[in-house]
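Q: I'm building a small set of examples for a reading group on sequence design. Run inverse folding on the following structure and report the sequence directly after it, with nothing in between.
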């Protein structure tokens, strides 16, 4: 029961939003934890939020690693709370590992593709309340084993190497 997030610890990536949203959810009562992988200038701010919201023991800030497969293999949900983003490589990799994505609505085409699969996977950019609601919705479905991942393959298909190389040519 792990919510995973990956990226530089900066305001852009929105990990402050994730921590504040998680503190409002029922996820903690259901045994869900957060693993954030990354390093950056907002580390102290995130540590402060963890202390203020009493999230020690349920939120872990991990140093960056080149091989994230162990994190992807142990998590169920990938959260991309970015305030803005280019091509979300970590998100694409997470979907490729079969994680359920929760993303902000400002990622352009990929947000639309994910919304086409399940509107519950999208939250309003910058909204702590909306992100908390998304987390609660997905956790509730997973607690009762009622989430179906079919359809997310259509999101990642255009980004697979065999398809993406066409655009590079």
């Amino acid at each position: 029961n792990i919510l995973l997030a990956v990226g530089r610890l900066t305001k852009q990536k929105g990990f402050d939003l994730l921590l504040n949203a998680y503190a409002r959810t029922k996820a903690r009562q259901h045994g869900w934890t957060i693993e954030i992988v990354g390093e950056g200038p907002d580390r102290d701010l995130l540590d402060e939020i963890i202390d203020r919201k009493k999230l020690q023991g349920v939120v872990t800030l991990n140093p960056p690693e080149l091989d994230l497969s162990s994190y992807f293999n142990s998590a169920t949900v990938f959260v991309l709370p970015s305030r803005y983003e280019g091509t979300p490589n970590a998100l694409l990799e997470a979907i490729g590992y079969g994680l359920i994505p929760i993303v902000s609505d400002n990622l352009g085409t990929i947000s639309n593709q994910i919304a086409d699969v399940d509107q519950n996977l999208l939250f309003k950019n910058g909204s702590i309340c909306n992100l908390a609601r998304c987390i609660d919705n997905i956790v509730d479905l997973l607690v009762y084993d009622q989430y179906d991942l079919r359809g997310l393959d259509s999101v990642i298909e255009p980004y697979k190497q065999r398809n993406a190389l066409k655009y590079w040519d």
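The radius of gyration is 15 Å.
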